Amino acid sequence: MQQNKKNKGAKNVLMFLLYAGPAVIVFTAVILIAFINGIQLTFTDWNGLTDEYQYIGFSNYADAFRNALFWESLLRTFKYAFGVVVITNVIAFLIAFGLTRGYKGQGLFRASFFTPNLIGGVVLGIVWKFVFSEVFVQLGKRGIGIFKNNWLSSPDTAFLALVVVAVWQMAGYLMLIYMAGIISVPREVQEASLLDGAIGLKNIRHIVVPLIMPSVTICTFMSIKSAFMAYDVNLSLTNGGPFQSTELVAMRVFNKAFQAEQYGVGQTEALILFLIVAAISVTQVILTKRQEVEA
Q1: CA pair distance 80, 163, nearest whole angstrom
Q2: What is the pTM of this model?
Q3: Distance from C-alpha of 157 to C-alpha of 161, rounded to nearest angstrom
Q4: 3-class SS at 268?
Q5: Hey, CA dihedral for 264, 268, 271, 273, is it positive or negative?
Q6: Half-sphere exposure of residue 203, counting CA atoms within 13 Å on the CB side?
Q7: Helical spans, DSSP H, in the chain
Q8: Cα–Cα distance between 23 and 18 in angstroms, integer?
Q9: Which of 61, 217, 233, 246 reaches 20 to 30 Å from 20, CA-CA?
Q10: Do residues 95 and 171 touch, judged by C-beta distance below 8 A?
Q11: What is the pLDDT of residue 295?
């Protein structure tokens, strides 16, 4: 009996190594070791170019916490993430709800809304840069006041432009996840709720949303992660301007590490960002998981 248990245990270990072993090895080599090495570099004055560096203790952390520009970019990123997460999830849910009602041609609309997600961030930024600087200005000349000026020339409208582009790109992807959740709601539950008078917003609030909370958990988590790590659109659309008013923290970290050649400081700021995002993401998952119910 004991021998059989040993054989079964050895077989399980062998199967794990066979199927999951390569992934674990790659994850350890590419992610885990690099992450640990990155933490080590936060205690150095490495410039990112030479092989020489010295350990300077917690000086980089002190510099990061004292640097007002870092906290300004972090606060700006919080505002950006809040706007993107809320607006994107609301729009994605509404689109998904509308495109699961059985209307004719909804397959075409699904493909149309999803298409922006297929465009790379740099290309997306270049395309929208033309839209904001050329198309919007032409619309402004035709009397549409909101488009009177180039949105990228003013700090407030440039920040809004970043949010608009992020929402436009991500909403279609989250739409698919919400659609999968809405379609999985049992028809019997929907019919029973209609008989009980849960119509319109009541149906959405009390029936649909509680039953698709797993989709809400996934979409919220993905949008938080994407918003805090935004870099490519930030680079190609505004490049942090005007006057660094749209420089998100990911761009600041990159510039600090690779342009200012202060890799230790940049890595420290990146680690602080990681800890903040991890705390927010874990809290969000716990809170939304508690709201999940079974049909």
Answers
A1: 7
A2: 0.86
A3: 6
A4: helix
A5: negative
A6: 16
A7: 2-19, 21-27, 33-41, 59-66, 68-98, 106-114, 121-130, 136-141, 155-183, 187-195, 201-203, 209-211, 213-228, 232-237, 249-254, 263-290
A8: 10
A9: 217
A10: yes
A11: 46
Going by C-beta distance under 8 Å and a sequence separation of 6 or more, which residues neighbour residue 42?
60, 61, 264, 267, 268, 271
- Tell me what percent of the residues of the chain surpass a pLDDT of 90: 38
Tokens matching residue 266: 């940049």
The DSSP symbol for 30 reads: I
Task: Write b or e for each residue in 220-242: b if 16 or more Cβ atoms lie within 10 A of its Cβ, otherwise e.
Answer: bbbbbbbbbbbebbbbbbbebee
DSSP-derived secondary structure letter, 129: H
The amino acid sitting at 61 is Y
Cα 139 to Cα 134: distance, rounded to the nearest angstrom: 9
Q: What is the pLDDT of residues 210-269, one digit of tens each?
A: 888 999 999 999 999 999 999 989 999 999 888 888 999 999 999 988 888 889 999 999
- What distances in angstroms separate CA 161 from CA 121, 125, 136, 248, one per listed residue? 14, 10, 12, 13
Q: Which residue has the tokens 């890595």?
A: 267
Angle at which helices 155-183 and 213-228 cross, to 10°: 150
Q: What is the pLDDT of residues 91-122, one digit of tens each?
A: 999 999 888 887 777 888 888 888 888 888 78
Helices 263-290 and 213-228: angle between axes, nearest 10 degrees:
170
Residues in the chain: 295
**Lookup: tokens for 37:** 């090495």
Tokens of 125: 């930024």
* ∠ Cα 194 110 85 (to 5°): 80
